[in-house]
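Quick one: structure tokens for this chain, please?
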Amino acid sequence: MRTFILALLVTIIAAPVYAQTLGTGIPLNQDKELSPEQAEKRRKTEEAYKSAIKGVPDAKPVDPWGNMRSTETAGSGAKAKTAPKKTN
């Protein structure tokens, strides 16, 4: 019984490893020869993309807590106390 459980555990652990090494997925490094029309279309698409990206303004940094902070500093908000006037 122990042998059966051990074999089952080894199988359960080894199954995902075996599945990763099959290599039957989509080949990602597939470089095909492009026809001149396809190459020209791809070049025009890239140029249009780059010109569109240049037209987008840079994003300003966002401070989500900016309205929660006071605009005064600690020193400017407090009034300086003057000494009380002495009356004789």
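The chain is about 50% helix and 0% strand.
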